[in-house]
Amino acid sequence: MSSRRPALLLPALVVNVLISGGTFLVAKSALSDFPPLVLGLFRFVLASCALWPVTRLMRRGKRIAREDRGRILLLGFLAVPANQALFLYGMQWASASHGALLYALTPAVILLVAAVRGVAPTLRQAGGIVLAFAGVLALLLQRGLHFGQRSLIGDLLILAAVVAWALYLYAGSGMTRRYGPLLVTSEALLAGTLMYLPVGLLALRGFDLSAVTAQGWCGLFYLAWLTSGFNYVVWFWGVEHLRPAATAVWSNLQPPTTAVMAWTLFGEPLPAGFLLSGALVLGGVWLTQRPGRAAEPTQVQAPSGWQSPKPLG
């Protein structure tokens, strides 16, 4: 972490949050023009072509050692074929606000992975995990009681994508410390895209590119070059100059930003049940991210959803 903070960093992080918040909305819109697997193919080919030269310029002379190439392949699989296939399929049916909120669960899932690996969480962090998952349970019960079956399936697919994303962040934490987050992300993205190519090209058969609207193409470029390109560079810039607690605050601004955007731009309702779930999830995540004996794994921060998620989310 650098002691001097660039003057443009905070404005850039505001733009980062707005882009991340819009990712789930744009993904839902783009999926009306592209099948999930085809959208993933175009998105990650374009993102790799954009991020690779930026990485070569900013991390000139740095390369992944031969003995770590196997780990890069694992990270690539978790980040692209696993996380993104689940994310894009889930976003066909999940609401944008639900997708963003589920991706906010990532730090709590990382702590659970660490606990399975023998790193016990503190009592406060354990309470945060319980609180966050109580919020998710409330979210899923609301889906099952008041919405269609596909909405619930969409949320469950997004939740599975979050697990894949958390595994990626946990497995890549050592690599990130060794090589820096930008280089690891670029290499993993390229490896994952190459793995994804056979499935994506098979899905492309019979797809009519001429039927894609201008809105669909704009959505694709947004996901590839803003979410998976510009946003990653800005995020890693922020990580170099801000403390982990500060980066966590910026990360947790994404779900409410998405919810407000979905409500104001698309009229997506924000029922009381969602507000309660959001308070539980974000409150629990805040507890898990406070400094503590077992907090190190949660300090591996990244935007959701290559997304949103990510979104991954």
Describe this structure in words.
The chain contains 13 helices and no strands. It is globular and about 45 Å long. It has one domain (9-299). With 313 residues, it is mainly alpha-helical. The model is unreliable at 293-313 (pLDDT under 50).
Question: How would you summarize this macromolecular structure in one to three sentences?
Answer:
The chain has 313 residues and is mostly helical. It has 13 helices and no strands.
What structural class results from the helix and strand content? mainly alpha
Largest sheet geometry: none
By DSSP, the count of extended strands is 0
Distance between the termini: 26 Å
Low-confidence stretches: 293-313
Oligomeric organization of the protein chains: single chain
Radius of gyration computed on alpha carbons? 18 Å
Number of domains: 1
Q: Give, in order, the helices and strands.
A: HHHHHHHHHHHHH
Query: Residue share in helices?
Result: over 70%
pLDDT averaged residue by residue = 84
Report the principal-axis shape: globular
**Percent of residues in β-strands:** under 5%
Count of DSSP helices? 13
Topology summary:
Layout: H1 9-30, H2 36-58, H3 69-91, H4 96-103, H5 106-116, H6 123-146, H7 149-171, H8 173-179, H9 181-204, H10 214-241, H11 244-252, H12 254-266, H13 272-289
Helix pairs in contact: 1-4, 1-10, 1-12, 2-3, 2-9, 2-10, 3-7, 3-9, 4-7, 4-12, 5-6, 5-7, 5-13, 6-13, 8-9, 11-13
Features:
313 residues; mainly alpha
